[in-house]
Amino acid sequence: MAGLQRIFHAVAPTLKGIGRAVDGMGAALEAVPVTEKLVASTAAMPYEGKAPSVASCAFVAPTATVLGDVTIGQGSSIWYGAKIRGDVHKITIGNNSSVGDCAMVHVAKIAGDAPTVIGDNVTIGANAVVHACTIQSNSLVGMGATVLDGAVIQTNAVVAPGALVPPGKVVSSGTLWAGCPANYLRDLTPEEVAAVGAGACEVAGLASAHRAECAKAFEEVLKDLEDAEDAAERHPDYFPKTDPLLADVALADGGTKPLTYPENSRRPTAPAGVARNNFHQH
């Protein structure tokens, strides 16, 4: 075994050189040269010795960035393109909270220590900016809204889409704030408060489905694509797919046993032991 390892180590540089040469020849023949680069995932990146702590059932999208001193609780979700950057201070996200697509959560250390604390059942909309502030539980920050340093969004509060909450501002519990800069608009109804919590639960359920899809291996994704194409093009009663595990189970029971048709039918009947998808329609 040691001898084989020495041989592999000896020829590896040569093989790499040959591979690079062949790749260069192929690139020279391309009408439009393309350089492919493999970029490491940024879903969880350490910074200065501090790595993110993400709950096992949380969802961090493959294109999201979670960096540094960040804690993400159970059932929470960081969506595609979102950035959670705990480089100069700590970011804490509670349970069942979500940070929408392309949103930004950051901290500050220039004008005093200012972490970002996000409670439970909080929904942060797409493209929002949450910077060195506190967002208490069961609150909502609308799409494109900005919450700046030292601001506090209290429980059961809503910041309207596109609003700008200035530094140090307190958005009181059970109220709706809108505008630039944001100002008190009105009190929320009990139904609206309940809808904020229900929306957080709905996003958590959707995140669970996305987590399962993103965790699939390449072979599973390829099979899903093949199944989708098959379902779009093939009638379920005609040329049924074969599955060795279900070959002796009738279609009506969820299996793949070929159906038989009347003699005057134009659809051919498969002989015993022959899969229907080996036939062609006349």
List strands and helices in order, with pairings.
Layout: H1 2-29, E1 53-54, E2 59-60, E3 65-72, E4 77-78, E5 83-93, E6 98-99, E7 104-106, E8 116-118, E9 123-124, E10 129-131, E11 134-135, E12 140-141, E13 146-147, E14 152-153, E15 158-159, E16 164-165, E17 170-171, E18 175-178, E19 183-187, H2 190-214, H3 218-233
Parallel strand pairs: 1-3, 2-4, 3-5, 4-6, 5-7, 5-8, 6-9, 7-10, 8-11, 9-12, 10-13, 11-14, 12-15, 13-16, 14-17, 15-18
Antiparallel strand pairs: 18-19
What can you tell me about this protein's structure?
- 28% of the residues are buried.
- The chain has three helices and 19 strands.
- Strands 1, 3, 5, 7, 8, 10, 11, 13, 14, 16 and 17 form an eleven-stranded parallel sheet that branches. The protein has an eight-stranded mixed sheet with strand order 2-4-6-9-12-15-18-19.
- The protein is an alpha/beta fold.
- Mean pLDDT is 82; it is low at 258-282.
- Helices cover 24% and strands 22% of the residues.
